[in-house]
Amino acid sequence: MQLETKRTFLKRVQLKDTEKLFKIFSDEELTRYFVSGKDETIEQTGRRVKKIVSHWENNRFGDFIVLNKSSLKTVGFGGLHYKIKGGNINISYIVDKAYWGQGLGYEIAQALLKYGFNTLRLNKIVAEIDPKNISSIKLAEKCGFEYNRTIEYKGIERLEYIMLNPEFD
């Protein structure tokens, strides 16, 4: 499974992507707002990747590794996934620091929303965001998400933003 934007390819995460994803998941700045925190070892990332692969197998959708079209370098990660089986489908996105400020987060999020609403025919997508993650809040709002409520996930406060299918254009 692959999605494409103007500047990136979003490829379904596979076990062989573990090393590339470790560079993202072991970066303290990129994972600072993760409930799970950063990965200290490649084995932790391997377990994370196995869960992502299992999610794909069980649900036929999931997370993607994001590659620059021209260089094929890993520039990020993102996807749609259940946080709790049968619960809301959550959108996530991470852009490597070297690519911040270039609009890639918006580009990736738009591709994921289009995939979720037009291909998967989802009725609703949520974004659960750490209240201190101002950049992610701004990106969600730019994409058209609207604040719904404050929730607690694994004992940590999150802001829940939602978008319904008819609101996506």
Automatic annotation (TrEMBL):
Residues 8-166 form the N-acetyltransferase domain. InterPro entries: Acyl_CoA_acyltransferase, GNAT_dom, N-acetyltransferase. GO terms for molecular function: acyltransferase activity, transferring groups other than amino-acyl groups. Pfam families: Acetyltransf_3 (PF13302). SUPFAM superfamilies: Acyl-CoA N-acyltransferases (Nat) (SSF55729). Gene3D superfamilies: 3.40.630.30. It comes from the Bacteria. This is N-acetyltransferase domain-containing protein. It comes from Thermohalobacter berrensis. The lineage of its organism: Bacteria, Bacillati, Bacillota, Tissierellia, Tissierellales.
